[in-house]
Design goal:
86% helix, 127 residues, single chain
Length: 127
């Protein structure tokens, strides 16, 4: 009787372990995919404009990616995925910020050029 209880307990533990590992595998895969996407987004965001106009946001994205990598190495896959997703959003935000600031500079430059130009008088028609 005692032997059957032990076997049943071992069977339940093996089943629970198998369930946990299968879920863990999916969680690990999702975290790995998010990490890859974060790396790609940071790589895409790294431009001279982003580093000049949105350096703080880009640094925050890199810091979140570093946290995600550390969590992944520590087998904390949910935390790794969450931090990687945060990194993705920050990398995208840095690109948007940089593009907006570059466009704003171009607009200011264009406006300045328009206001400093003298009006051109139309040529007189010859009769």
């Amino acid at each position: 009787m005692k032997r059957n209880i032990i076997k049943a307990g071992m069977g339940v533990m093996a089943f629970a372990l198998a369930l946990g590992l299968s879920g863990c595998g999916r969680s690990k895969q999702n975290a790995a995919l998010a990490l890859d996407e974060a790396r790609l987004n940071i790589s895409a965001a790294k431009s001279i404009a982003t580093q000049l106009y949105a350096a703080e946001t880009l640094k925050a994205a890199e810091a979140a990616l570093k946290k995600a990598d550390s969590a992944f190495q520590a087998l904390h896959y949910d935390i790794a995925r969450t931090e990687a997703e945060k990194s993705i959003q920050l990398a995208k935000q840095s690109q948007i910020e940089a593009e907006a600031k570059v466009a704003e500079k171009k607009l200011k430059s264009a406006k300045k050029g328009v206001t400093t130009k003298k009006a051109v008088k139309p040529a007189k028609k010859k009769k």
